[in-house]
Amino acid sequence: QQQVKQSPQSLIVQKGGISIINCAYENTAFDYFPWYQQFPGKGPALLIAIRPDVSEKKEGRFTISFNKSAKQFSLHIMDSQPGDSATYFCAASMGEYQAGTALIFGKGTTLSVSS
Amino acid sequence: DTGVSQNPRHKITKRGQNVTFRCDPISEHNRLYWYRQTLGQGPEFLTYFQNEAQLEKSRLLSDRFSAERPKGSFSTLEIQRTEQGDSAMYLCASSYTGNLAGDYNEQFFGPGTRLTVL
After folding, report:
1. Most exposed of A28, A84, A89, B101 (fewest Cβ within 10 Å)?
2. Neighbours of B99 (CB within 10 A)
3. How far is A102 from chain B (nearest CA, A)?
């Protein structure tokens, strides 16, 4: 049972455009939602993360939108650049101060930004 | 660079052999995690330690897998009697937990060890 569903699987965006990647989760106990960026041959790098007490978080060109009632969250990359071409993973976990801090990852979205 | 380091970066072995990977977390990070990532998939959680205590193990961690963190610093992951299905990237991550940790569960990943079982 996949607990975090990510879409689309791949995405092609023109330079300067907006890239949007969506994730949906099932477990309402999740309370931490990070996005990771991974380049080939490298480990995932944390981009931005959100908790369910806010609906939006922005850091530079990256924004997370969170919809708790729909159990969905999305990553928006504004002014997409060729250097943003990578694989993006959404993830979720629960209860920092409780048992279970494993990150549950989506299957990833391969983003290509054409120049 | 004081990030998470993993060794070796690549390992090729024959089916049935044992392999061991090492992870050095960010200094003073008290939690250390192991994940496995296969091609085209997201990382899958295997196990994690808080200091030297192994607190959680995924059902993916069969009895051929064992992980240790003897002094609460570096960790090793051993796979015994490797199978072709063990071929994957093995990722290590670390984090700091505490009341003043800020954004919690912020896990920092190493570059991974790519295992190929022939």
Report:
1. A28
2. 6
3. 6
Residues contacting B12, CB < 8 A, separation 6+: B115, B116, B118
Adjacent-strand bridge partners of A22: A7, A74
- Return the percent helix, strand and coil in chain B, to nearest 5: 5, 45, 50
Contact B104 A105 (CB under 8 A): no
Residues of A in contact with B109 (CB under 8 A): 36, 43-45
Q: How far apart are CA A85 and CA A68, in angstroms?
A: 29
Q: B4, A43: Cβ pair inside 8 Å?
A: yes
Residues A61/A79, Cβ–Cβ less than 8 Å = yes
B107 reaches A (C-beta below 8 A):
yes
User: Token pair of B20, please?
Assistant: 């061991």
Q: Show the CA angle centred on residue B67, arms to residues B62 and B70, nearest 5°.
A: 155
The rounded average pLDDT for each run of 10 residues, N- to C-terminus, in chain B (118 residues) is 90 98 93 94 94 89 94 94 97 81 74 97
Residues 6+ apart with CB under 8 A from B102: none
Nearest to B45 among A96, A97, A102 (CB): A102
pLDDT digits (tens, 9 = 90+) for A45-99: 999 999 888 999 999 999 999 999 999 999 999 999 999 999 999 999 886 554 4
B55–A contact, CB cutoff 8 A: yes
| Structural tokens at position B104 | 């919690």
* Separation of alpha carbons B69 and A108, rounded Å: 30
